[in-house]
Amino acid sequence: MVSLFALGRCCPVSLISLTSSRNDLRGMDIEDKNNILMKANDAVITLQGVLEGKHDKVTEDTLNQHHIPREGWWSAFFRVVERMAVMGRQAHNRLHPLEDDFEGFTH
Fold first, then answer.
1. In the predicted structure, residue 96 carries a pLDDT above the cut 60
2. Please, which contacts does 52-55 make with residues 24 or more away whose CB atoms are closer than 8 Å?
3. Which of 21, 53, 77, 93 has its CA 20 to 30 A from that of 46?
4. With contact defined as beta carbons under 8 Å apart, do 44 and 21 qualify?
5. What is the largest CA-CA distance in the chain?
6. What are the angstrom distances between the C-alpha of 42 and each of 8, 37, 93, 107?
7. Cα–Cα distance between 66 and 58 in angstroms, integer?
8. Which pLDDT score is estimated for 101?
């Protein structure tokens, strides 16, 4: 079984940050459990589990069952995670534009 830890692609600091962010999501008190916010929270929980290697056995079994090369899948998965991180930073930057940092700046 190969997790991102085993591939040297994930570090505990990233998982601590993910756990912290997940805890922020968990704080929401919404009665309707079938909404996009709860689905996003469930996706984060699943993603964290995959990154931590908690789903290695089922991942390996599924890859073997469908004859998908393990290394190629993990590589593609990691690229998706990286791109999601980039998208997250871009979204954050749109919410907090740099011009706020330059208030009071004179030439």
1. yes
2. 52/3, 52/5, 52/15, 53/1, 53/3, 53/4, 53/5, 53/6
3. 93
4. yes
5. 64
6. 25, 9, 25, 49
7. 12
8. 55
Report the predicted TM-score, pTM, of the whole model to 2 decimal places: 0.65
Q: Answer whether 9's CB lies under 8 Å from 78's CB.
A: yes
14 vs 42 pLDDT, higher one: 42
Residue tagged 């996009």 (tokens):
36
- Output the six-digit token pair for 41: 């929270």
Q: Is the pLDDT of residue 44 over 90?
A: no
SS3 for 107? coil
Q: Could you give the dihedral angle defined by the CA atoms of residues 17, 22, 24 and 29, in that order, rounded to the nearest 10 degrees? A: -170
Residues 80, 18: Cα–Cα separation, whole Å: 16
